[in-house]
Description:
The chain has one domain (3-194).
Amino acid sequence: MPLKKALFIIITVLLIDQISKIYIKTNFVYGEEVVVFDWFRIHFIENNGMAWGAEFGGRAGKLFLTIFRLFAIAGIGYWLYSSVKKNAHTILIVSISLIFAGAMGNIIDSVFYGVIFDTPMNGVATLFAEKPYGELFYGKVVDMLYFPIWNGVLPDWLPIWGGKPFTFFNAIFNVADSAISAAVILLIIFNKKAFPKEEETETIQ
């Protein structure tokens, strides 16, 4: 698979990711939800960029996370370039492209959103605001995709969680996260094609 096609995948995912995030930021009040179907909703939240909205270390932790991601994206970019040069399987190159695009999408939020958006109380954000909500490298990641496929109470016979309310799937994520998840699923399903083992050949003297 040529590098141009990999770049096309990356650019396409980034455009969809950033357009959806900017639309949500400038049209939704924080916490606002639109029910598309019972099992699919658009729900606007933000987080500091860690999985499941986790946080650690305050401002220092946020800065460390963003800088770590910048180094990681450089490594992923090299992995992609090297895989293309080695004529790796299409599945691997597509997966790396999706991972790169997903990581870059969330890095853009973390690095730039704090200096281009404001966060008005009970109002929608302004793009290129005069008084942005944060600083460079301290932006928050925008999430909006919510799939509460099942809501109910778990059976009493289950240990620990029995009898408690439960929602599957209760994570709220974005297009960038979806791209990374899709890549991981591809690599798991097509592991043997993505990472073929070199056949050992015997040399007959």
